Amino acid sequence: MMVLFTLIFMIPLINKNIWVKLMSFFNVTFLFILKYSNTIMNFNVSLILGFDKISYFMVLLSLWVCSLMILASSKINKLDNFTIFFNLNMILLMFSLMVVFSSLNLLIFYIFFEVSLIPVLFLIVGWGYQPERLAAGLYLIFYTLFFSLPMMLGIFYLLNSCYSLMFFEFMSLDYCFLYFLINMIFFVKIPMFGIHLWLPKAHVEAPVSGSMILAGVMLKLGGYGLMRLMKVFQKMGLCLNVYMISFALIGGVLVSLICFYQSDIKSLIAYSSVSHMSLVMSGILSLNYLGYVGSLVLMIGHGLCSSGLFVLANVYYERLNTRSLYVVKGLINLIPSVSLWMFMLSVCNMSSPPSLNLLGEIILYMSLVSYSYIIMVFLMVISFFSAVYSLYLYSYTNHGKFSLGIYSFNSGKLNEFLLLFLHWFPLNLLFLFSGNLFMI
Q: What is the pTM of this model?
């Protein structure tokens, strides 16, 4: 609760220097770490807010990525492009995400789950690049709202059956229609193959801060919601989850193939996110302790890695005014220092040691193979394709002959290197402190 009030009291700082705002956001992050890091399992902040290990790591990821968004948006502050509204939007976004991840009540969770869409929509429509950002915003809203009303009906049915909307008071129900009424909103948010088209459109049109929060945190809302509500669907999960896992893994393979013919850097990274999140969804639906742990680790690792890749895509876009892989070539000759960061984040994206992605995928593979040996075939294909499109992204952008249309070029900036370091360092350092992740 103290952290939420601290966020509200940051509103007078919205018109200050970017470094003042950045330090304020990092202060909130470290305040949260110091206050709740000694919590063993559960800690109730109030009657409707509380933390366990899953909530703790999700809130921490949200605070970290939102702080990095401020650093990534220095151009908006420098050009004074509605800076006050942008910073207010950031505070609203961080506040809503903290309430979503710390909510103990399903209705509060649902309300702020929908509220968190509004700042992201403002980011895309207000600070996007192309006129198509309006269509991307509509895709984002309507894909989510289409399944919002069914979830509301499911919440009312849960209230009528369990006489409470507190997560820890739910009991297992065996109603097939309720399974899809409530879970479809999370399948869209993850997103599952077939209902994923909003994600590439939103990423391509969003500014760098919008892409960072979409990849870093917003996709994790779906995984977090499934974790919280799978308790209600344990009986139905024994029957239906095998079909959803099969569909998710087949979709992960198909999306990995789609990555190979993408010509836009952002679009390729967005589709790779769909492939990785299909593993997260499968791990949660396996109803296995290791599946939950692996999904949590992979969500944190993917949030940091894909956010860093979108920062690199923006670094290239600011210099070349294009994200086309047919033009962005041979950059190792021009900015070798940025190419080094591209290599380090690309190999993390393909789950190389010692990144969190590797740890998460190993745990998920143990969980899914124990669920069914046939799944091993899909996991092998997804892992292989993940390595291929990650190296494809790196080699296309950094090797070859650079475009003759480049007349002048500036090297990497200090704030860009700081931003990339703050993505890469926790992504690899947390591997050493991953023991806490097993105590969820």
A: 0.92
